[in-house]
Amino acid sequence: MKLTILGSGTNVHPRRAAAGYLVQTDRLFLLDLGPRTLMNLLKTDVDRHQIRHMLFSHYHADHVSDFITFFFDAVYHARYVGTRAPLTLIGPPGTRRLFRSILGAFPSFTAAAFPVTLREVTTRPFRIGRTRIIPRPVLHSRGLPCLGYRIEFGGRVLAYSGDSQYCESVVRLCRQADVAVLDCSFPADRPGPGHMHAGECGQVAREAGVRRLILSHFYPVADQADVRRQARREYRGTIVRGKDLMTVSISTSAGGRRRGSQ
Question: What predicted TM-score, i.e. pTM, was given to this entire model?
Answer without folding.
Answer: 0.94
